[in-house]
């Protein structure tokens, strides 16, 4: 059998891999748990329900499941439309700020396109919610700006600035409970971005949060009014 227990020697052989039990007096309880975990579970798939047939699947199986079906064309079209409207809104706000401040770019940064894909393509996902989008971009942009000022100022540490900015952004977002994957690139831009980003200093965080807010407002309008989806699921 795939599971062999040798109590005197306190060794366990699981599918050919030896495992030494550090607590001999608990071997029996461990073996019962292992047997329960490896016991096949009876399941039914959609096609098998029609024929009344059952299949057994091991809960520890490493084989991947079946991919979900492709989105209908109507949903794809609405997602594309929402992304287009969101980006156009962001461009309009950016142009308005640029006219008043004289700067080339203020709130339009590349990671906003990835945020738009999540807001309109997966509006119910936790990473797409307003606190994640706005908070994630603000935290990452601020940390990226600080990394550039404090770390990249030293020639010996400058090569590690990119890794520090990206890693710190991810960790801080998770600690703050507002994890938003595209925002990691926002933090990286604080170190590798164009001159206007580096010249903005800590204001880069405010600018990124402003752009994220515009994208969230666009998501509120498009998802709820046109797509019939509930957005956000929480604040």
Automatic annotation (TrEMBL):
- Please list the coiled coil stretches: none
Q: Which residues form the HPP transmembrane region domain?
A: 69-232
User: What's one Pfam family here?
Assistant: TM_HPP
Region called Disordered, residue ranges = 40-70
Q: Where are the transmembrane segments?
A: 73-93, 105-127, 133-151, 163-182, 202-226
Biased composition of type Polar residues is found at 54-63
Keyword terms = Membrane, Transmembrane, Transmembrane helix
| Entry annotated with the keyword Membrane | yes
Entry's PANTHER family? TRANSMEMBRANE PROTEIN DDB_G0269096-RELATED (PTHR33741)
- Protein's recorded name: HPP transmembrane region domain-containing protein
Organism equals: Aplanochytrium stocchinoi
